[in-house]
Amino acid sequence: MKQLLLGYLPAEKDLWEGELANNRLRYAELKRELLLNPVKSLLVDFLYFQSEAEADSFECFVQLLSGSVDHFCQQLDNSSVGIHSTLLHFSELLKANDGELWRHLDASKVC
């Protein structure tokens, strides 16, 4: 019943067997593909995502800073809740979690 409610099966019961057979076939093909050549399957995804990495990184940065809009108040700039403190905190988090990227940004005078 839950497969029907989740949309895994068509509403007509007479089509269930065909849908289940197709799903089993697709699962077997995927399993065979991943077991026979896992590197190829993963490399294709990696190369695709690598080409989108800059745009994805920028989107993450925008989302991260979107919650900091209230911090852009000149009177608060140097306070513990101001933008300088927030960016310093982000820099420390980046340094702790991705030292290579932090060193690159630091050498580029970005952070």
Automatic annotation (TrEMBL):
<dbReference type="InterPro" id="IPR000195">
    <property type="entry name" value="Rab-GAP-TBC_dom"/>
</dbReference>
<protein>
    <recommendedName>
        <fullName>Rab-GAP TBC domain-containing protein</fullName>
    </recommendedName>
</protein>
<dbReference type="InterPro" id="IPR035969">
    <property type="entry name" value="Rab-GAP_TBC_sf"/>
</dbReference>
<dbReference type="Pfam" id="PF00566">
    <property type="entry name" value="RabGAP-TBC"/>
</dbReference>
<feature type="domain" description="Rab-GAP TBC">
    <location>
        <begin position="1"/>
        <end position="111"/>
    </location>
</feature>
